[in-house]
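From the methods appendix. Each design record in this collection lists the tokenized structure first, followed by the designed amino acid sequence. Records were kept in a plain field format so they could be parsed without special tools. The example shown here is representative of the layout used throughout.

RECORD:
FOLD TOKENS (53 positions):
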């Protein structure tokens, strides 16, 4: 039996503005998907630290 819970290929995707990698929609972003710019906290924090230098 597989731990696979579903097929993400039908979900909307965006590219992270820090690393450029594609990332898929997540349920926790349902209310603000239009404002999501980063794929992870690591990329969001890296963008802030680069802007302050």
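DESIGN:
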């Amino acid at each position: 039996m597989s731990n696979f819970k579903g097929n993400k290929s039908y979900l909307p995707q965006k590219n992270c503005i820090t690393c450029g990698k594609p990332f898929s929609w997540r349920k926790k972003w349902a209310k603000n998907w239009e404002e999501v710019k980063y794929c992870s906290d690591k990329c969001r924090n890296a963008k802030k630290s680069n802007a302050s230098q």
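APPENDIX NOTE: The mean pLDDT is 85.
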